[in-house]
Specification:
231 residues; two-stranded antiparallel sheet; alpha/beta; ten-stranded mixed β-sheet; 22% helix
Length: 231
Amino acid sequence: MNASAFILAAGLGTRLRPLTDTMPKALVPVAGKPLLQHLIERLKHAGFTRIVVNIHHFGEQIIDFLHANDNFGLDIRISDERGMLLETGGAVRKAMPLFETSCPVLVHNVDILHNLDVAEFYLRNAQVADATLLVSQRTTTRYLYADARQQLVGWQNIKTNEIKGSIADATPFAFSGIHLISPTLLSQMTTWSERFSIIDFYLHSCTTHSVRLDCHPDLRLLDVGKVDTLS
């Protein structure tokens, strides 16, 4: 598959302390392997040959880990955010020159384990919308809302009741941290600031572009963001 995947690995991993006091979240071991290795092997199996990894917290450890493993036989490139964390939107914007941007880019949080067929998700959605966000119907504190066409229309934080966009007569979904962005939409990022939220970008873009929510009723996710999820 002549496509790029972007692994978001720059986070501070504060919920995984004290493990992340000495290592990046991406290298925290799960079932005997670092999270980053689990994801790289899954993406390789799905057919991705170019992977971009962003780094910040203990970023040099990620670089050393990739070198020690010969980049797992892939074209792996580093987007260096050690100077400043850029949020997901800013991270994607900074990494754009490293992508194969003739086709959509898969964006994937490093700390999400799941049962998704990544190749099927990519191939089924690559030509469907300007962006496709993988969602499910589960309990969370922040929801994305879709209209009857599965088009993104709004967002809500139920703890603070902050609302963006329109949620009236729309269906709430929980975002998985996995999404697909087309070259058309990537090009719209160039006018945005250096640091911004990808959700804010999608909410802005959904009024002029197709930003679709893809719900998998059988999706099983494990957010490896806290120490107790590792036990």
